[in-house]
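fold-stage: in
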Amino acid sequence: MAFYTEVSEQDLKAFLAQFDVGAYQSHVGIRKGVSNTNYDLHTDDGHYVLTLFEPNRVHIEDVPFFMAYADALQKGGVSSPKIMMDKQGHFVRELCGRPACIVSYLLGKDVDKADITPDNCRKVGATLAKMHKIGADFEHLKVNRYSLEKWNGWFSRYKDTLNKAKNGLGLTIYMLLTELNNSWPKDLPRGAIHGDFFPDNVFFRNFEISGVIDFHFACTDLFIFDLAIAVNAWCFDRDIKFVNERFHALVQGYQSVRPLTPAETKVLPLMLKAAALRFLLSRIEEYANNKENAAVTPHDPRSFIKRLEFFTNEH
């Protein structure tokens, strides 16, 4: 989540008149995250989250996919925000020149990265596998705009700055991209994936997962790549040291719901490096494009340099 576009009380009241969600009480910007504008919204009917999809972060034509995916997860038994329809049966309306939607507020909170346990990871793995089983039957298709083609473009644009971040990093990434360009797996299980399954997008309540949020990276891609993203996100401690107990718990939890195929197991080491590379390059772009006094603080790419180094040395 993030906060870019200012929404006045007057504009929001007019927007809310199109929905049956109660009368306006208050709204406060949510500054956590980097993608879209989000507000904590209170009405006399309840607590909601208002999202405005930012054109510089999201392709507007992709918004229906995000909405349909969230709806499919909820209907499939994975708790996710309920998207509120307007009085004409639409999920998305325009607000301040942005496509916008209102979703229910999920109870629970994300786990602090320092407090993640193997039990958390086991439940995360099982939930992700359940999402993939739903995603396998999801009829909508959307290209992954943050896959290999995008990584090649990022590398070309920022390769001169990579060695400033870490000596030899440019060569490491060049060699990995060459490997990925030549051997990206194709004939593996695929479907709708979350694409950003990080701790801040998974809520826990009473030690159980209470909901999954933020679908702006959802797309159609390999399930094993989505699993690799989750490993990168959940299996390193606050000092960016790999925690084997978390890894084994996450994979065991996943396979308790959806067993990996032998081909997926074989390619997992490569996908772990690919997922580390994807988020390293996107964070480098965030820093390169960050403006002074911006409303959003960019993610530090150094944590993913360490992840990439770990997976490169291990595999």
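fold-stage: in (second)
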Amino acid sequence: MTGAGALPDLDRRPEIEDMVVELYRAVAMDDLFGPIFEDVASIDWAAHVPHLADYWCRVLLGEAGYTGRIVDAHRRLHDLAPLGADHFDRWFELFSTTVAEGWAGPSADRAVAHAATMARSLARIVADTDWHPPRRATAPA
């Protein structure tokens, strides 16, 4: 933290773990995703969240530990509940909002940029959808 009231960056494992918990709490409670993860995929959140934290620690900190195959996992999900552009829109909205509300700095910015790239790739590979992150609105001059 750089000053009173400043948000921390996502540059340490505890911060990344907190972000993942906040994000997937929002995902689990979401009207679009909640039923998919609860009723269709039957996600064991206690096992899944540490795995997701390992993924983001690899991306942001270069830590070893994540051994999953992200495309395969999302293909299995897509086979159970087809994913469309609305799913990628909503996930990216939840991701970017979660980060913006709790973290700021170069690593937080990299996390959001990576999330956009990852969502775009998964949309293309898994769902055969040409998804792009929404453009940020700019303030009027």
